[in-house]
Amino acid sequence: MPHLPEHDSTPVLALTVWQPWASAIAYGTKRIENRTWPTEHRGPVLIHAGRTTDPNAKDMPLGRPFLRRPFPKGAVVAVARLDDCHEDDGWCTLWSARGQWHWRLTDVTPLAQPLPWPGARGLWTPPPGLLAAPLLTEALGAARA
Q1: pLDDT band at 75, cuts 50/70/90?
Q2: Which of 82, 103, 124, 130 is the most exposed place for a label (fewest CB within 10 A)?
Q3: In this structure, are residues 18 and 142 in contact, taking their beta carbons and an 8 Å threshold?
Q4: Distance CA 145, CA 81 (A)
Q5: In degrees rounded to 5, what are phi and psi of residue 65?
């Protein structure tokens, strides 16, 4: 599994998110990602904008602003720290979906520009070639801090 530099043994994973939600994480205030499954991973996670646009986004007020501007697809757009995962408690945030697992993201750092890369389902392991991209260096440093 790819890791941050030698002094940090926390693995870096990636998560592909449909648009406009990936942009809402990278460029907005979305700090909860909703999933039907939990994760034990804590630490850096690349936010990858998938090629799919959520067909329900136009009906969700928090997503509409991100539909009105260009958004990247098929690219890493940010690095975040995944620091919690909990079941829906009814009190989380406006971004929380009922009946879902809430993955709390902190220290979100958008990349200076989207980094084109194919995504994958679930939490996936980025290959060394992706992690070596200069665009990720600073963002990974922020997520590690």
Answers
A1: very high
A2: 124
A3: no
A4: 10
A5: -60, -30
Which residues contact residue 88 at a Cβ distance below 8 angstroms, ignoring those fewer than 6 apart?
Answer: 96, 97, 98, 99, 100, 101, 102
Residue among 44, 42, 39 nearest 3 (CA): 44
Decide: 44 and 140 in contact? Cβ < 8 Å: yes
Q: What is the per-residue pLDDT across 102-123, written as a single tens digit (0 to 9) for each? A: 999 999 999 999 999 999 999 9
Closest CA to 110 of 55, 67, 66: 66
Cα 106 to Cα 117, 128, 130, distances in angstroms = 23, 24, 22
Identify the helix (H) or strand (E) that includes residue 11: none
Closest CA to 120 of 58, 51, 70, 22: 51
